[in-house]
Amino acid sequence: MGAELIDGKAFAARLRARIAGEVAALKAAHGVTPGLAVVLVGEDPASAVYVRNKGKAACEVGMESFEHRLPAEVSQADLLALVARLNGDPAVNGILVQLPLPAHIDEAAVINAISPEKDVDGFTVLNVGRLATGQRAMVPCTPLGCLMMLRDRLGPLGGKDALVIGRSNIVGKPMAQLLLADSATVTVAHSRTQGLPDLCRRADIVVAAVGRPRFVQGDWIKPGAAVIDVGINRTEAGLVGDVDFDAARRVAGAITPVPGGVGPMTIACLLANTLTATARVHGLPEPDGLTP
Known about the structure:
This protein is an alpha/beta fold. The protein has two domains: 30-115, 3-Layer(aba) Sandwich (Rossmann fold), CATH 3.40.50; 141-263, NAD(P)-binding Rossmann-like Domain (Rossmann fold). It contains ten helices and eleven strands. The protein has a six-stranded parallel beta sheet with strand order 1-11-8-7-5-6. A three-stranded parallel beta sheet has the order 3-2-4, with helices on both faces. Strands 9-10 form a two-stranded antiparallel sheet. α7 links the parallel β5 and β6 (185-189). α1 runs parallel beside α10, α6 crosses α7 (172-181) and α6 (141-154) packs across α10 (262-281). The longest helix has 23 residues, at 8-30. It is globular and about 50 Å long. The chain starts with a strand and ends in an 11-residue tail after the last helix. The model has no long low-confidence stretch (mean pLDDT 96). Residues 140-280 form the Tetrahydrofolate dehydrogenase/cyclohydrolase NAD(P)-binding domain. Its EC number is 1.5.1.5, 3.5.4.9. It comes from Paracoccus sphaerophysae. One of its GO terms (cellular component) is cytosol.
């Protein structure tokens, strides 16, 4: 029979349609159009694709998209000056600086220069701290999308045994915080964790974000568990996740595919965060279900 597929592509399409409706209502009732500014430094092909997709997605839901492309040799001072201008621009509600940045630029300095209220990636130290302490925060897009799919599939997560494999600032750490806030019992594992297969076998929820192709084996999965595969690894066989999908699918209760699982939710949640940021800055009610 196999696990139920968690179709992130379809979920993201529904979420984007809902956001488009909320944006139209915001315009009609208040004359406000959410604006997303995306900054790309250099000519990295993958980053250029991401930026183009984000701008296109923003326009499709009725938002304003502001794209800023800077040469790879731009100075840190000039990049920070652009961020400062965007912070002060009332037409811009969300700011995203595409990572990675060139080696001569301090990523942390640039990220933390973004106004926390416009930090739709949720990467600034202030938003990280707010999330960790249970305060109202902008939440990183990928973990937010994972949380939405888990809630949709499992209902309340309280008391579930959750394993997060990976400890990055972008996925692993905020994912653990979100699961804790939903009253799951959370273990964070990583490349140096001992006894990882046994940790997996007791988990009701496995979120794999370790960056290793097919790292999580099928016989590690607890029968009926929900498996969220965040990994996107390029191999000779094409794109594969961090989970051995074919083997895990025979055991799990539900699993995300790669591609078509978590990836589409990341951009949809970027739009959700931009809408949330817009509502907050204008003192308007936030749409239900777009934040933790």
